[in-house]
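Changelog note: in this version the structure field was regenerated for every chain. One regenerated record is shown below for reference.
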Amino acid sequence: ELPIYRIIQEALTNIERHADARTVRVELTVQASSLLLTVHDDGKGFSSGNQQHLHPRKQGIGLINIRERAVAVGGICSIQSVEGHGTEITVQFSQ
């Protein structure tokens, strides 16, 4: 429970600081053998080539911390972003 809370907390903090989003959606879905967490915003997003969003010294721990927290508890993390169209973070946890 705590790792999921911390991932959501980190994602929302990152959105608040960087995304300029109007809407944020957090979903937690129970599937047959896993738990799926999705955090989506309609903010400014970033291009996959813009590595400053993934570099801890330039943007704090942000997205790297989310990935590390997910992996630490056996989760699989995916971060998809399109510049001008927002970002979606998906973490799948095995049950």
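Spot check on this record: The longest helix spans residues 2-19. The first strand starts at residue 24 and ends at 30.
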